[in-house]
Amino acid sequence: MGPTAVDTAVRDGDAASREFVRAAPPPGGGVVSAVGYRSRGRRPALHRGLPSPYLTLIFSLDGPVTTGRTPAEATGPDAVRTDIVVGGLHQSPAYVVQPEHEAGIQLAVHPLAARALLGLPAAELAGQLVTDGTDVLGRIAADVRERLCEQDAWSDRFAFLNAYLARRAADAERAGAVRPEVGEAWAWLARHRGAGTLRGLSAHVALSERRLSALFRAETGVTPKQAARLMRFQHAKAAVVRAVAAGTRPDLARIAADRGYYDHSHLVRDFQQYTGLSPSAWVAEECRNIQAGGHGGGEDWDV
């Protein structure tokens, strides 16, 4: 995430603008993607934060990030508002209020890097939609955010954040190590893009299905089957995004077959669970964001 790794920003409009700047993730695999974003002059809206195989870490460079499990919660008095967002793995969309102007850096963090970068196993984040970053990272995270706000260039922000995360990783012993069986299980699921079976996975790591599921969930907060579904959906969604970005209509039947779904209907059911919409409705809602470069990030990197 150094200064030379920053992509060219994408902007649209004159009165209203959106800007997305991506940086190649640093070595080590802990951070899967890093995206800087800024918008201004836009009509306030509600965004769906979709489930993925990654944890979410956001440093807002503007006002607090406002989220909820439902549209009513996100726009009501029970919404969660925090300047630093830490989010675990989840199975349904999170709703994020997008104000007239916003800015920040969003990282996708590998769940098995949670101990090194966040200081706890990913499973400890599973009970809540969003956790205040200072509760996880400590008060120094607020100082990091303040320094990020003071930087003028995206390259400087990414470099500073990279250095901060490297220091945390260097002190990773404080949170213990991931069991090798869990690490290998995740790698096996990733190689199969979520299409492998639990029986095949348990045989590969030489554990019973029950024992493997218990260890996996204790580390990540999800079962191997849930992780596999998230991976498969991530790859399918990435294929949809690439088609839309290229100006073509996604071939959902082909995408379903190529990504390990039983059929087109199976893919549609996963879309409905993870987005709350059909694939076509989700594309219609997100089309402008996709064309402006607002999707990508983790979809371009192996899980």
From TrEMBL:
<protein>
    <submittedName>
        <fullName>Transcriptional regulator</fullName>
    </submittedName>
</protein>
<keyword id="KW-0805">Transcription regulation</keyword>
<dbReference type="GO" id="GO:0003700">
    <property type="term" value="F:DNA-binding transcription factor activity"/>
</dbReference>
<feature type="domain" description="HTH araC/xylS-type">
    <location>
        <begin position="197"/>
        <end position="285"/>
    </location>
</feature>
<dbReference type="InterPro" id="IPR009057">
    <property type="entry name" value="Homeodomain-like_sf"/>
</dbReference>
<keyword id="KW-0804">Transcription</keyword>
<dbReference type="InterPro" id="IPR050204">
    <property type="entry name" value="AraC_XylS_family_regulators"/>
</dbReference>
<dbReference type="InterPro" id="IPR018060">
    <property type="entry name" value="HTH_AraC"/>
</dbReference>
<dbReference type="GO" id="GO:0043565">
    <property type="term" value="F:sequence-specific DNA binding"/>
</dbReference>
<dbReference type="InterPro" id="IPR018062">
    <property type="entry name" value="HTH_AraC-typ_CS"/>
</dbReference>
<keyword id="KW-0238">DNA-binding</keyword>
<dbReference type="Pfam" id="PF12833">
    <property type="entry name" value="HTH_18"/>
</dbReference>
